[in-house]
Write a structure and sequence with these properties.
Blueprint lengths: L2 H12 L4 H14 L6 H13 L3 H8 L3 E4 L10 H8 L3 H12 L5 H12 L3 H10 L8 H10 L3 E9 H10 L7 E4 L1 E3 L5 E4 L10 H13 L4 E5 L2 H4 L7 E5 L6 H6 L3 E2 L2 H15 L2
Parallel strand pairs: 1-2, 1-6, 2-3, 6-7, 7-8
Antiparallel strand pairs: 4-5
Helix pairs in contact: 2-3, 5-6, 6-7, 9-14
């Protein structure tokens, strides 16, 4: 079989697949076949199969000047509010509400208010939770963030979760505190939970998009990418220049169906950088 026939067959086989699937298949082809050619030929194949109808998304990813991560079920394996609820003995009730919010079935602010009114986390309870529940980072995210940092790409954490908890996550991956956008809890003088700061952009539906617009206006980013598992993350593009849906911890049906680029692991994104960058230099 000629190289051209081989590439044509693979292209036809992968036609219509999502970008994440073709990326994975491409890497399998590269390692498992004998049709290894020059870097230039492989680059052409990479562009043909991996990009397809998503070529602009991959180009944006390779030239990103800022990347924003959701935290719960994206950067971290768990939903912190669900874990906090378990810690407080109201886990199942809160879990159902979280699923509704992540699937976009109720407004985020209503879901947040409802969950916090059930949990009522005091300052002391929150402190105990943080001390006994270190962040469980998603597999591969440290490698991806390290590559982004080496490329001097600005990284932000944008979350509907709680800033106090997310600060411990940011520390694990060397992201500065002023690159965190998340909700602040309010307490009375005795440390009892009172409310949350409704002035925070992340405290309402559409808030993540407002944060991204703020960042673009302030820093003049031209290729800002949002990565997340939930509907609220997907709704942030635009103003984000591209959205990458993430299903490595939990797959949200709405996000998987509607995201133009959906990945199941951070390794998929890391490999696009590695293979794309290496071959661009040839």
């Amino acid at each position: 079989m000629s190289h051209n026939d081989f590439f044509k067959n693979i292209y036809l086989h992968t036609a219509g697949l999502r970008c994440s699937q073709t990326t994975t298949e491409l890497l399998m082809i590269q390692s498992d076949t004998n049709y290894r050619t020059s870097g230039l030929v492989f680059l052409n194949f990479f562009l043909l199969v991996t990009m397809g109808s998503n070529d602009e998304l991959v180009k944006l990813w390779l030239s990103a000047d800022a990347v924003c991560f959701d935290v719960d079920s994206t950067l971290c394996k768990e939903e912190a509010i669900d874990e906090l609820a378990k810690f407080c003995g109201v886990g199942e009730e809160i879990r159902k509400c979280t699923i509704e919010a992540m699937n976009g079935n109720i407004s985020f602010q209503d879901a947040l208010r409802t969950r916090l009114n059930i949990i009522k986390p005091s300052k002391s309870i929150l402190k105990q939770f943080i001390e006994t529940h270190p962040p469980k980072l998603t597999d591969g995210v440290k490698d991806l963030i390290l590559i982004l940092q080496k490329k001097n790409i600005d990284i932000y954490l944008i979350s509907g979760g709680f800033r106090t908890i997310i600060e411990t996550v940011a520390k694990e991956v060397n992201i500065p505190k002023d690159h965190i956008f998340a909700n602040r809890l309010q307490f009375d003088q005795d440390g009892n939970y009172v409310s949350f700061d409704k002035a925070e952009l992340t405290a309402k539906s559409g808030g993540k998009g407002q944060v991204i617009q703020l960042l673009k206006d302030k820093h003049n980013y031209s290729n800002l990418i949002m990565i997340g598992d939930g509907a609220t993350d997907m709704e942030a593009s635009p103003p984000a220049d591209a959205f990458i849906g993430f299903g490595g911890n939990v797959v949200r049906k709405k996000v998987k169906e509607e995201a133009k680029w959906f990945v199941m692991s951070f390794a998929e994104l890391t490999n696009v950088f590695k293979n794309g960058s290496n071959n661009m230099e040839v």
